[in-house]
Structures are given as C-alpha cells and as structure tokens.
Design goal:
The structure holds 3 protein chains of 3 kinds.
Chain A lengths: L10 E8 L10 H15 L7 E5 L3 H4 L5 H8 L6 E6 L4 H15 L4 E8 L7 H7 L15 H16 L7 H11 L13 H5 L3 E3 L2 E2 L9 E9 L12 E10 L14 H14 L8 E3 L5 H10 L8 H6 L16 H4 L7 H13 L13 E8 L4 E9 L4
Parallel strand pairs in A: 2-3, 2-4, 9-10
Antiparallel strand pairs in A: 1-7, 1-8, 4-7, 5-6, 8-11, 10-11
Helix pairs in contact in A: 4-13
Chain B lengths: L3 E8 L10 H16 L6 E5 L13 H8 L6 E6 L4 H14 L6 E7 L6 H9 L14 H16 L7 H11 L13 H6 L2 E3 L2 E2 L9 E9 L12 E10 L14 H14 L8 E3 L5 H10 L8 H6 L16 H4 L7 H14 L12 E8 L4 E9 L1
Parallel strand pairs in B: 2-3, 2-4, 9-10
Antiparallel strand pairs in B: 1-7, 1-8, 4-7, 5-6, 8-11, 10-11
Helix pairs in contact in B: 1-2, 3-12
Chain C lengths: L2 H6 L1 H6 L1 E4 L6 E2 L4 E2 L6 E2 L1 E4 L3 E10 L12 E8 L4 E5 L13 E12 L4 E10 L5
Antiparallel strand pairs in C: 1-2, 1-5, 3-4, 6-7, 6-9, 7-8, 9-10
Classes of the chains: A alpha/beta, B alpha/beta, C mainly beta.
Chain lengths: ~400, ~375, ~130
C-alpha cells in the first residue's frame, strides 16, 4: 500500500448526527432536519457553522416547499448564514457534501454544516410515486409509466441474461443488509431475513422483487465539516478526513445510455475519487454504496473495481460483502434495511463511514476500518457522487 | 482563494417559449457561453432552477439531463436551488469551485420554464419560496406578500404610490433597447399611474413579468487570462451570501432587507469598495418595493429614501447609479431560477463593452444582487475590470 | 392530501398555541424549539390571547391553486399583542374599514381545500374586534 496523497486540503469531520429512518407522521421536515443538525453540533462540541448545505429532492413536490436552505438555517437558530439546497435526485446528499468540500477548499469559510433531509410522509398515495419517478426522464421514461423500480428491473433482467446469474443470485445483498441492520438501533428494519423470505417475496417489477428494493421513508443526517488548518476537532476521537470527492453524470434515460450495464457515471466518479486519494479498490475497508435496488449494488461494486464486470453478484453470493468479508457494504443496513431517505442518503452514507472509522458503530462495527467510501446515485446512475474518508492518523 | 474571471456568456431571450423544452433552452445558453469562451467542455456544470421539482410533472436530476443534452459526457453536474435566488447562489458556487483551485472551468446555467402552466399552478409554485406552514397555507400569493410590505412602507414613510413609478419607467426604457428582454415597450409615468391594481397597493407596472429563459456564464481562474487585446478581463471582486427568515412576519424588521445588507457588506469588503464606487447595479426589482428596499439596505441611500433615487433620476443610464440597465426583472423579465445568472451576464456585457444599445460609458465596477423569496436568501456579487 | 401535516399543525392553527422561551421570556409563534431571539432551546408551551393589530394587509385576486374558490380574500400580517407576527386571512370584515393598526382577534375558519377530494383545512383567521354600538 502506497502513501496516499490528496488533491483536497485537509477537511475534517467535526461531528455527525443521524435520525432513525421511518414514517415520522408526527414530525415535520424542518424538525427532522433540526434533530440531525443538533446532534451533529453536539457531537462537534457545540461548534456553530458559517454555512449550510442542504441535500433534498422531494420537498418541492411533496411539501410544497422550496427554499429549504434559508428555512432550515433560520429554524436552527442560525439566521443570516448562507444556505442553499442541492439536488440531483437520490444523489442530492452527496452533491451537498461535495459542494461543502469545494466551499471549504476555497478558503472562504471554515466550518460548514451539511444536512440531508427527506420527508415523504407529508403526502400519501400516488403523488409520492410520481415524485419519486421524477428522477428519470419525465418526457420519455416517466410518461410511459416507468417507475424507479421498473428502471432497475429492466437493468436486472438484462444483467441476468448477459451474465447467466442463477435464480436468487442477488439474494445476498438483501440478506447481508438485513443482518447488518440488527446491530443498528436507528435502522428501519432490524430483523434478519432468510433466503426463503427473499425467494417468496412478491414481484415489484419483474425480475426485481420486494426484497431487492429499499424502502424509502423520512429521515435526516448531518455532518459538520471544518478546515483542518483553522479548526481541529476537540476531544479524544480520531479525526476523520475527507480524502476525495468526485461527481460524474450520464444520460437520464436507460435507453440513452450507450452501455447501461457499464454504470459509466459510477465508474468515472469512483475512479476520480480513488485517483484523488491515491488509492485502489483493495485499500477500501468498507463501501457504503447505494443499494436502493440490489442490481445497483452489484453494478456499483463492478464499476468501482471490486469485481469484474458481471461478477458483482458473486461477491454477495459468496459472503464477501459481509462485515468480515473482503469488501463490507451496507454495514449499518444500507438503504435496504437502514432505510433510504431519498436525497438524504448520501449524507447518511458518509456519516456511517465516519462512525465506522471512529469505532462508534457498536454491534455493527467493521473491525479495524481505516478507509471508507460512500457513493450515492441519482436516478439509474445518471448522477453519481463518491466520497472517500479516512482516519486522519492513517496518513 | 485565487481570483476568478468571467470568460464567456450566453442567454436566450426571455419570453413564452412554448415550443422549446427546458433542457433545450438551457442547452442553447450553455453552448453559446462555451462558444463565447472558446471552450469545448467545462469541468463542472452548475444548473440553477427553482420550479422543476415542484409537482405535478416535476423533473429532478436536471444537472445530468442538461449535461447530457450538451454532449458533456461524464461531467460533474448538479442543480442548486434557493428559490428566485438560485441563479446568484449558482454563480457563487461556481466562484468557490474555481477559487478553490480544485476545478478550473465552470459553466453556470440558469434556466426556468414557467409560462405554460395555468396561473393558479404557477402562483402556487412561486409560493413554495415562502414558509409553507405559516405563510403559504394561509393563501397569500407571492405578490400579496410584497404588497403587505409595500403598504407598510408607504404607511411609515409617507410615499405616494406614484412615487415608485420611476423604477418601472426606467426599466422599460432600458428593456426597449435589449433584444433579449421580455417587454420591449417603453412606458410613461401616466401609464404607471393608470395601470390596474393587481394586489393593492401593487399595480401591474410594479410587478415584473415571469417568463421562460436561460442564461449562462463561464468561470475560469483569472490567471489564465492575459489582459490586453480583445475584451477587458472581468474578475469577480466580491461575493456575499446571507439568509433571513422565510416568513415576512418573522423578520426582525419587515422594512429592512437584513440579508441584503449583510451580503452586500461581505461583497464590498472583499472588493475593497463602497457604494460610491459602484458604477451600476443590477438589483432584484421583482417588485418596485424590492428595488427601493435593496437600494437602502446596500447603502446607496438612507432608510426609507429608496424612491428618492428614482425621483431624482439617479437610476437612469445617465444618472449616478444606473440600475436595471438592460431592463431588469421588470422589463427583461424574471424567469425565476434563471434571473440571477441573467444579472451576471448583463453585468459582464456592460464591463466588456458588449451591451449594445444599453451600453453605459466605460463602466469599471458593476454589482448584481439576486433575492430569493421576499428577502430570505440574498446573493451579492461585484465584478470589475482588471 | 397532506393529512399528517394538517394534523401536526392543528394546535397552532386551532388554538394559537406557541412557546415561551424559558431563558429570555420571548413569546414564539409558531413553536420552533430554538428561540429566534437568544438562540437557546425553547419548548415550553404558551397560549396566546388571540388579540393583535393589523400590521399590514392586502386583497388577493389571483389566488394560488387550492385557494381559487375563495378569491378575492384579504390577507394580513398581524402583530399579536405578545410580540410575534403571523400571516393570516381577515374575516367578518362587514362594512368596517380595515387599516393598519385595526385591533383584531383570532377566530377559526376554513382557509382552503386540499386535494381533489377537497379535504377542508381550518386555521386561524382574524376579525376586527367588535366595538360596542
């Protein structure tokens, strides 16, 4: 293993906060976000941010609310600080994190708060489905009745056809995620499942079944970041550094992608991130990928270089993605069992990597984790944001 | 932070583009900016837009969609939103990206398509910039919130309604000379006085028209540009951002744009200038009351005296502080999420000497201010020739 | 239909229940957990009297979706006697002239409909305080 360099100046995590994901009927969008931000501030020893970066995708459609930046800054008692919302469908949280990194790197600020928040339960019924489908191409996909599950189902079918995956070949992703969530008190689902549960699950969008798909619900996660040269986190915990941050895009519609199974935007994003960090796949100790559908987990592993093309499913089938396997994923349950909070997911992933690297993951702890990667997807991999974090004492 | 320069710009006319998709409008402005800058491809594409995520028929992931349309395979792209302040926020994000040294070429494109929905739906869309629970739920439209402010302002400072007319007359006179402007008819003071009430005390000519449109700018490290020959080098001298309560009723002082004051001060401090050194100001004249309040909060005149600058002719192209030089929101139009980028394009064109019939005589320092909602997010930028 | 949201807001909308900051005694409406004045935690419930005065007002003719059936209607910013301001519709105006400074009191009325099935939404409105004849 070679000494990693990084193009980024030293950007440290001062604190994290995560709310449980679930149907929080009794809480408003702003109070859920505040819960996570307050927890992050406390975790950081009371540090007050100078700017707020919000990752969210559905508030305009489901809560009739744009302008979340100013709303949440004011609600948190930080009236006056700069604030804005960043959106790239399911990758919104990763985009907000990326922008915070660039803003800190510019030197124009020292301490910033990133918060990913999503509230689905202000509405019920078909308007929620319609809002979630808006990550696809509205004019050419969604209008045909294509849902996110249908997009994934199309990809899964093609993958199975090309790579001769046996029946239930993807089950390992679901089984692992659920097993990992048993150790996460904030997870939406905390019960392990068996192969029989997976095999008998109803079809969602053939061949994708219910257990191939993550539940989407309310939640918020927050991370307070600082410039290491101007503010060192207090306390005894090992500081965590953001080593790399990279975003890439591709066509929205599956039918417009030259090679849909190549997961090109994810390949580019992960590749750029690893190049920035001076690392290779074998240096990564855990990968919080975006398992909103099991097929995406397989494609994310392949495109990031953890498996050859068409072999990502085997990592799950052969137990390599468990906490003690070669490349642990969804270590606290992932989107599949911890829950997917839409645009907030990217921040959950990064916060969970922080918890793992600092040894704070409790029963879900990945042993001796030094370097972690988080990756979130907007649409069927049309926007991909990848971050690599490391224990600062590793360098 | 290393200095950032504006290298190229592009824009579409503001109008009712019923035959164009949002993505094609954005693509037109983006590709024109790239051509103007002599570039093929940016490192980052930042899209500003307010309404695309509001249902029904919403579209997320605009960054990727527009990047794809422009043939920018794999490029980093995303959308930023701060209601009608999205454009200014996007420009600032671009300045930070290039200023950080981690990114070299940034393309910022603001786009909005809003004229083909029924007016009740558009009005509801604009109301999402307010506090959904404590403001919008009670029915005030965006115009109504500004009307509440204008009425109180008149009550406290004694201005008659006709005293606000100069803002509109000036904007329309300038818009008439701008081929990109939505409204190209000059108006008279009499037109202003006789215009119908829309939401008392705001009349039709106090209010900026919505529209469809896209504007784009290219940002590069200033050190890449060698001044001399061709266009003057335009750099970002100052950038400020601040927020305030969403709800008008939660403001500490309803008649003071605290976020405008705060963000303007940041920009002035970075640029090392004060209000007296600003040659022209592309302010956010969504409503005439906002123009008055902006001038006051930025220190161009005293509190409560905004209309006086209009009455004295200071805001005319020949005045000491020209505003809305290419029509402003009032006549160029207000395609909400794109407006902040239109303002930057207009400032750059003035400084480059490329403002056509709207050209001011050799301006050197221009200011742009973009407001989200009724003053809850405010971005201020100062550009100058270097 | 935003069922849960309306349910969550009912205490504020029907009864004008807000908070008082235990640190600086500022009255807060609507409840928000962090005092906007001193920045510290504020969760103590406080019942407002419902009395206030018109800070400003206007009449909406071009109503947003969901409110069009009720246009034109008058919307105001009201300064509650305890300090905070709220945005609300005015009602029961009758023949009385409304102006800045008019004393008003809270009442509960329908403010709109939500969704195609027309779930009725009720909240506070303000009416002029009746003067004895």
């Amino acid at each position: 293993m070679h000494a990693p360099g990084s193009a980024l100046p030293e950007i440290l995590v001062a604190g994290v906060g995560l709310t449980p994901i679930g149907e929080h009927w009794e809480k408003s969008l702003r109070s859920i976000a505040l819960e996570a931000m307050t927890a992050a501030v406390e975790d950081a020893g009371g540090l007050r941010p100078q700017a707020l970066f919000v990752g969210n995708m559905l508030a305009p459609a489901l809560s009739a609310q744009t302008h979340l930046g100013a709303l949440l800054a004011d609600f948190a008692g930080w009236r006056g600080i700069e604030a804005a919302t960043y959106e790239a469908a399911g990758a919104s949280g990763g985009i907000a994190l990326r922008q915070a990194v660039l803003a800190l790197a510019s030197g124009e600020m020292d301490r910033v708060m990133v918060v990913g928040v999503e509230k689905l339960t202000d509405r019920i019924g078909s308007s929620v489905e319609a809002a979630l489908a808006a990550a696809a191409d509205a004019d050419f996909e969604a209008v045909q009745g294509l849902t996110p599950a249908a997009q994934a189902g199309l990809l899964m079918r093609r993958y199975i056809h090309e790579h001769h995956v046996p029946e239930h070949g993807f089950a390992g992703f679901s089984l692992t995620a659920h097993a990992n969530a048993v150790g996460n008190p904030r997870a939406l689902y905390r019960r392990a499942i068996r192969l029989e549960d997976y095999a008998s699950a109803p079809m969602l969008s053939d061949p994708l079944n219910l257990f191939d798909a993550a539940p989407v619900a309310d939640g918020a996660a927050a991370i307070l970041l600082t410039r290491g040269d101007r503010h060192r986190p207090a306390g005894e915990r090992t500081p965590i550094r953001i080593l790399a941050s990279a975003v890439a895009t591709g066509p929205l519609a599956l039918h417009d992608q030259p090679d849909p199974l190549g997961f090109e935007a994810a390949r580019i994003s992960a590749g750029r991130a690893m190049a920035q960090a001076g690392l290779a796949a074998h240096d990564i100790d855990l990968f919080e990928l975006h398992d909103v559908f099991s097929i995406y987990a397989a494609l994310a592993l392949e495109s990031a270089g953890f498996a050859e093309r068409g072999q990502g499913w085997r990592l799950a089938a052969e137990g390599e993605i468990s906490r003690t396997g070669r490349i642990p994923i969804s270590t606290l349950g992932g989107s599949k069992a911890r829950g997917d909070a839409g645009g907030a997911t990217g921040v959950y992933q990064a916060a969970e990597v922080v918890l793992q690297l600092q040894g704070r993951a409790g029963e879900a702890q990945v042993p001796e984790a030094q370097v972690g990667m988080g990756q979130c997807l907007g649409g069927a991999g049309a926007t991909v944001a990848t971050h690599i974090l490391t224990r600062a004492d590793r360098l | 932070m290393r200095e950032v320069a504006v290298l190229g710009a592009g824009q579409t006319p503001v109008g009712e583009h019923w035959d164009r998709t949002l993505v094609s409008l954005a693509g037109e402005a983006a590709l024109e900016a790239l051509r103007d800058a002599g570039l093929d491809r940016p490192d980052v594409l930042i899209v500003s837009n307010m309404l695309s995520g509001v249902g029904p028929g919403s579209q997320l992931n605009l960054g990727a969609q527009i990047a794809d349309w422009c043939g920018l395979k794999g490029v980093e792209a995303f959308k930023i939103e701060a209601a009608c302040g999205s454009g200014g926020a996007a420009f600032r994000a671009g300045v930070h990206a290039v200023g950080s040294g981690l990114v070299d070429l940034t393309l910022v494109v603001g786009v909005e398509k809003m004229t083909q929905t029924p007016s009740t739906v558009t009005t509801a869309g604009l109301a999402t910039a307010a506090d959904a629970d404590t403001e919008a739920a009670h029915g005030p439209s965006f115009i109504a919130l500004n009307a509440l402010i204008m009425r109180r302002y008149q009550h406290e400072y004694g201005w008659k309604h006709e005293d606000f007319g100069a803002f509109s007359v000036n904007a329309h006179a300038n818009g008439a000379l701008n081929p990109y402007a939505r409204l190209q008819q000059p108006i008279t003071h009499e037109d202003y006085r006789e215009a119908r009430m829309v939401c008392e005390p705001i009349n039709l000519l106090d209010s900026s028209p919505i529209g469809d449109g896209a504007a784009a700018v290219i940002l590069v490290p200033a050190e890449r540009l060698v001044p001399g020959g061709g266009r003057p080098r335009v750099v970002v001298a100052g950038s400020g951002a601040a927020t305030d309560s969403l709800a008008v009723h939660d403001r500490r002082d309803l008649l003071w744009l605290a976020a405008a004051e705060r963000s303007a001060r940041q920009a002035f401090a970075q640029a090392g200038v004060g209000p007296d050194e600003i040659d022209f100001f592309e302010l956010h004249d969504a409503f005439s009351i906002m123009a008055a309040l902006s001038l006051e909060a930025c220190g161009f005149t005293e509190r409560g005296q905004g209309p006086r600058l209009g009455l004295e002719g200071a805001i005319l192209p020949s005045g000491r502080l020209p505003i809305a030089t290419q029509g402003g929101l009032k006549a160029r139009g207000h395609p909400v999420g794109a407006t902040g980028v239109y303002q930057i394009v207009e400032v750059a064109r003035q400084l480059w000497g490329a403002a056509g019939d709207n050209q001011l005589p050799e301006p050197r320092v221009g200011m742009a201010q973009n407001i989200g909602g009724s003053g809850a997010t405010i971005l201020t930028h100062i550009l100058r020739i270097s | 239909m935003e069922v849960s949201r309306h349910w969550r807001l009912r205490q504020q909308r029907y009864a004008l229940v807000g908070e008082v900051c235990p640190h600086c005694d500022v009255k807060i409406f609507p409840p928000r957990d962090i005092c906007p004045d001193c920045g510290r935690e504020a969760r103590t419930e406080y019942q407002f009297s419902g009395r206030g005065e018109v800070y400003s007002y206007t009449t909406v003719h071009d109503a947003p979706a969901g409110h069009e059936a009720y246009a034109p209607y008058t919307v105001a910013v009201i300064r509650l006697e305890e300090g905070p301001m709220v945005t609300a519709q005015l009602t029961d105006l009758g023949d009385q002239p409304i102006g800045i400074g008019t004393p008003v009191e809270m009442t509960t009325r329908k403010i709109g409909e939500d969704g195609e099935r027309g779930m009725l939404v009720y909240a506070y409105k303000f009416r002029p305080v009746l003067r004895p004849a």
